[in-house]
Amino acid sequence: MWLSRVLDRWFGENLKYVSFKTTAFVLNHKGFPVLPAQAELYLKVCLRNHVDVAVSEQESTDTSTRLAHFKYYGFVVKRVVEGVRRV
Fold first, then answer.
1. Percent of the chain, pLDDT > 90?
2. Residues contacting 71, CB < 8 A, separation 6+
3. Can you give the pLDDT at residue 1?
4. pLDDT above 60: residue 79
5. In the prediction, which pLDDT does 75 show?
6. How confident is the prediction for the chain on average, in pLDDT?
C-alpha cells in the first residue's frame, strides 16, 4: 500500500514527535470519535518506535465541551497504547 511506504520513510528519520488533529478522528456508529484503522495503525507504529504523540484541537468557544472531547481523545489514545503494550 502506498501510504505504508510513505509512512515507513518517516521512520528512517530521527522522528521524535507526531501530532494528530482532532479532525483525524471520525465518529463511530455510537457517535464517539475513533481513529480510522490506518491512523490507529500509524499511531501504534509510532508508539512502538518511542515517538511522542500529541492530539491538538482548533480553538473552541465552549471550554467544557473542549475538555470533555480531550478527555475522550485521551481515552482513545490510552486504549491504543495499552494495545501496543500487549503485543
1. 0
2. none
3. 58
4. yes
5. 79
6. 76
pLDDT at residue 19 tops 80: yes
Contact yes or no for 9/44 (Cβ under 8 A):
no
Q: How many angstroms separate the CA atoms of 54 and 47, rounded?
A: 11
Cβ atoms 77, 43 nearer than 8 A: yes
DSSP letters along 8-33, please? HHHTTS---EEEEEGGG-EE-TTS-E
- Reading the block at residue 79, the C-alpha cell is 486504549
> Beta strands of 32-74 (E only): which ranges?
33-34, 52-56
Residues 83 and 46: beta-carbon distance below 8 Å: no
Enumerate long-range contacts of 1-6, CB under 8 Å, 24 or more apart. Answer: 3/38
Sign of CA dihedral 81, 21, 31, 39: negative
φ, ψ at 35 (rounded to 5°): -85, 140
The angle, 0 to 180 degrees and rounded to 10, between the axes of the packed helices 37-48 and 2-10 is 30
